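HUMAN: Mind sharing a backbone?

ASSISTANT:
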Amino acid sequence: MLFWALLFAAAGYSSSLAQEAKPFYEGKTIQFLVSSGPGATTDISARLVARYLAKHIPGNPGIIVQNMPGGGGLVGANYLYNVAKPDGLTILAVSRANYLDQMVGRSEVKADFRKLSWIGSFNKSPMMAACRTDTPYKSIAAIRAAKVPPRFGQSGTGSISYVFGSLIEKILDLKIKNVTGFQSGRDTDLGLERGEVDCRATSDITVIRAPWNLWVKENFVTFVLQQGPEKSALLPPVPTVAELAPPESKSLVKLMDIMLAYTDFDRPYAAPPGVAKERLQILRGGFERMLKDAEFAAEAKKLLDWDGTTFLSGEHLQKKIDATVTQPPEVIKRVKEILEES
């Protein structure tokens, strides 16, 4: 009897070890939130990640993508910070410039981006500005001389295009009129097509997707500016901000490095605050393995013009967000002045 009792006990212990060894994500489903509407570049990149990420997470969980647009990305960020459980089963494709809303203390922000559990980011994507060719706004000089300021389509004050537009207004002594309320990048594109706005500021990689690839071919838009300092290989030879900035605006150009830090982490992904360290490491590790997947890299090149090398690990992204958001009061004050609504 003792022999059989010991045998059954050993079998039970062995079964317990097997259960403990089972990957946490096995049989689980990850909710993958997207802070933009369908069809925007943020949505395209998030759905690409969702197709490949589970393959590189032990246990191969299911992934369900859900769009959560609004407020230039703040609706999704606020949900992630305040509602989503810190169990490692929710990921957000973050709107990369939302941390600026936190820096300037906007009331709509209900999140501390420094406390999110950052998973990683890939690609760099500097900004550019383009206007309909049938408008008078064919250059920065023409915009400056115009009696009626151009209408720039924006989703909200936290959007990347709003931030860039506000910066070039100050640095280049321009006047633009922001038309807010568009729900996604594609919605803003439709506004440009319908003539509801004259211009659009967006990432340079936008030009590789419809309708921009057709607009370029048909000369529907004229590019007037790019962020720099390096010139984008995706754009025609238009000037950079630094090239056009007057000497008295050089300090603002330096400030732009802080405010446009997000162009170094073009496609950032995060989980809620407080995710257990071991689960966050699983997500970060899966993300980095995904970036080395040849099939993922090929699709990312095709869809997003990713060069396969530019990325930030979750750890480095966490540090960059913290360093960028945590600024002296005088810098915060200057950022507020630049971003305040006209």
In short: The longest strand covers residues 29-34.
